[in-house]
Amino acid sequence: MPLGVNRNFQTLLDLVPGTSVETFQHSPFFNASSSLQTNVNGQPRMGNNYQIEGIDNNERTGLLQILITPAEAIQQVSISTTNHDPELGRATGAVTNVIIKSGSNGFHGAGYEFLQNSAFDARSYFNPTVGHLAYNYFGGNVGGPIRRNKIFFFANYLRTMDREDNTNQENIPDNAFRTGDLSGDPGHQVYDPLTGAQDGSGLNRTPFPGNIIPPSRINPISAKILSYLPPTNEAFSPTSQTNDYFALLPARKTNDQIDSKIDWNISDKDRLSGRFSFARPEIYQAPIFGEAGGPAQSAFEGSGTQKTYSTGLNYNRTINPTLLTEVRIGVAHYHNEAYQSDYGKNDSTALGVPGVNLGPFTSGFVGVVITGYSSPMTGYSPSLPWKRAEANIDMVNSWTKILHNHQIKWGVDVRRIRDDLLEDQTYSPRGIITFTALQTAAAKCTTNAAGAQTCSATSNGLANEMASFLLDLPSKEGRDVNSYFPALRQTQFFAYAADNWQVSSKLTLNLGLRWEFYSPPTPRFPGGFSNYDAVNNQLVIAGVGGNPMNMGLRAQYRYFAPRLGVAYRLTEKTVIRTGFGISYTPFPDNTWAYNFPVRSNNQYVAPSGADNYAPAVLPSGLAPTFANGFPPPNPVVVPPNGIISDPDKTEAKTVIPLNYKNGYIESWNFAVQRELPWHFNIDVAYVGSHGVDTPASPNLNAGQIVGAGAAGQPFLSKYGITSAVTQYFQGFSSTYHSLQVKFDRAFTGGFQLTTAFTWQRAMDFQVGDDGALDFYGGQGLSRNYARADFDRTLNFVQSYIYELPFGKGRAFLANRFAGRLLAAGRFRVFFRLAPALRLRLPAAIV
To answer: Which of 43, 132, 188, 613 has the fewest beta carbons under 10 Å from its own?
Structure first.
C-alpha cells in the first residue's frame, strides 16, 4: 500500500479525489491512537465514518478514531466518498472499512521494521537548530491453520517508538524586566497604581521614574515564579520580546498493539469469524519550566496512557443459493487518562497561593498568564488532567436476496454509545490568574464640544503587562469546578433497503432508502445534564424535579436518506455513471449540556461599572492576589424543581437547542470511465453537494452592533450577562462543486500508478469544521459565507509503486541468494502538489 504518515492506512484517502491533506488533530495525549483527519468533498472532518469489518470504530462524534489497524494486519481497505450504498451511512464525508487479514491452509509469517528520523529534516527559519526525531515501527505476524480447511488464525504484533526532541520557540520576559527594570520599553509608561484616584478610573496616576519599579515593590511570589524561568537565549527586541527563548524538549510515545483473527468454516453454509485488537499507547512530554509547566506544546506537558480494545464477531449463513444473512456484533472501547507533570503535588500551596490544591484533581502549579507573552507563562493546559472512557456497542443484521436480475439487500444497525469525559477547558481545576496592562496604566479623558467625556489609556503595552504581574495586580482570576462526572448515553438505530437491478446488459440501477434515528442523549444519572434556557435565563437540570432525563430534546424521526445510482455501459471500454443521495451525520462534537453544576467555573473580575484600571475583586472584597489565592468553590445547590434561575453572570454557558436537527448533505455526481491501452484507465467526474443544517457553534451573546463593544451584547441588557453563550449547534448551508479525475495503471509488469486530481470550491459559514461565526447580526450573517477554511482549489496527488526486478522469475539475480533477499523489494514514491490554505481574516480585521 502507498502509505504516508507513520504508515497509517488513513493516508490512503490521499489517493482519492476530493480529499484534503490529512491533519493530526488534538494533542498526542487526547489523540493517543494517532488517527488522522481528512475533509472529504467539502465536508467537515467529523463527517467521516471509519469501520473495522463493518463495526463502528469512531469516537462518539467522529472526532477521532478509536483504534488504527496496522497496515501489516490489513487485507483490504474500501473507501466510499459520495452517494454511498444504502447500507453505509452516519457520514456526510467518506465511509472507510478495514478488513483484517485471515489465515490459510499454509503457515505464513513476516517480520518488518520501518525507520524515520530527522537526519534529512530542514531547519525552520525561526529555530536555531533542527529537532530530533527517531520513529521506529516494527513487528511481525503469523497465520495458518488450526484445523485444515476448517479453522484458521492470524495474529500481528506491532510496536512503535516515537522519540523526539521537539522545538519550542517562546516569548518570555527578558532578564531586566524580571528585576523591575522596564526601561527597555520606553514607549509604554508604567504608572504607580497606589497613586491617583483609587476608584478604578485610572485618573491622576504618577509614573514610575525611568519605568523602573523599586525592588521593594516587587511581590515576592511574583519573583519566586520568575525564578522558574531560565534566562533568555535568543536575540530579541526589548519592546516586543518575541521568540527570545528556544528549547528542545524530549517527547516520547510508545505503543504496543496486537491484532488477531480466527476464521471458522463451520459448514458449507455457515462461517464464523472473530477478531480482537488491543493497544496501549503511553505518552510523555517534558515541561519547559520544570514543575512550573509553561507554554511548550500548547501546555500539554505530562504523561498519559490509553487502553484500547476493539473486538468483533461476524457470522454468515447461506440459507439457500439465493438468500444470505450476516450478523455482526462488536465493541470498541478506550480508557484514556492524562496528567500534568506535577500532578499529585501541592505546588501552588508551596508557592504561597492558597485555595488551589484542594485534592488530587486540583493538584499542581497554578496557571499564570501575562498578556504579551507566551501563554500560560506557568501552569499547564486547562484540559489537564482528564479521565475519558468510551464504549461503542454495535449490532448489525443484513440480508441479501437474489431475485432474477435483482439483488435485494436490507438490514438494521443498532449502536449503543457510552461516553464519559471528565475534562475542563476554560481555566483548569488549578485556576488561571491573568495580568493585563490597565492595572499599571493611566487614564486620560477629553471632552468634546457637546460636553461628552471620553477616556482612554495613555499607555497599554508590554511594560504595563509585566508591571501588573510584578506588582501582583491581576485583572482576572478563574478556575474550573467539577461537581459531577459528565457521562452521556445514546442509542442510534439505522435501517436500510436496496435493490441492485441489472436492467439490461448495459444498464444497472442502484435504488435504496436508508433511515437513521439518533435518540436524544441522556445522562448516566439524574443531574448529569444542565442546559441553559436562553429565553428564561435559567439552567434546566435533567432528571431533577419534573425535567426529563433527555432535557426535552425532540426526537427526530424523519431522517430518510434516498440513494440512486445509474451505470450505463456505452461501449466495452466506456461506462457512464451518475447518482444522487442524502447522508446524515451525528452530533459533531464531544461537548453537551454540561453547564453548572456538572461543570462550572468561578471567575472574578473588576467590579461592574468600573473602568477596569483596578484589579479584580473576590467575593470577600479583596483583590485576588497570589497571597489571597482562591476562595472556596461556589457551593452547588440544585433546587428541588431542577431549575436554577438567574445563574452566575460570569460563567460561560452552553445551549443545546431542544429542536436540534442533525446535519445532512444532498450529493450528486456524473462520471465517465474509460479503459485505456497499456493497462491504464481514467475516470473524470463532476461531484457536487449541498449541505443542510451544517453545524456551526455561534456565540448568542456576541456583539450585534458594530463598534458598540459590550453594550452591543444582547444578554447584557436583558440579564446583565457578558460571558459567552454558545449554542451547539445552529444549522447553516454549505455548497461544494468539483472536477475530479483519477488516472491509474493496474499493477502489472512490476509497476503501478495512482493519480488523483481535484479542482474544487467548498463554501460554508463556520470557522473550521464546526466552529463559531466571524460576523453576527449587525454585521450581516451572510458575510460569513466564504471559502471553507480547509478548501484548496487544486489538489494533485500521484503514487508510484515499482517492484524491483530481482529474484526468481525476474530479470536479474534469478537463482542467487541476493536475489532471494531482494525479491520482495518495492520502491514507492508519493507526490503531492497543492496550493497553501487561504488566510481567513476575522471580523475584527475586516
So the answer is: 132
